[in-house]
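Appendix B, Record 12. Input sequence as logged:
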Amino acid sequence: MQHEQSGLPDTSYQEETPLLERTPSISDLQKESYLRQKLKKAVDTIKGKFLEANFEKIKIRRGTGKNEGKIVAVGSKKGEYKILKDDESGLIKSFFRQLQRSTWAEG
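Logged structural output:
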């Protein structure tokens, strides 16, 4: 009994898996969760002080450079404004003033 061959290798047994996929460590996942909690805290704090805050205009993200690990708002000139005090008890004065002066609070 002879088997037919098409000349192409049989790939029916191969699974598709990315070769360089990185699984996040527990430490990475904890940092991510902590940053998400801080982001939610920042948004909730802003909402508590400025009911009319326009979150489509306020670009909130993770800080870079000296603000790494902090949640910041990005200003019109790409400057970063740290949002929360280090103890997360409220808004930083410079961010609070920027929020009052800016169009971030307009609908």
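The helical segments are 26-49, 93-101.
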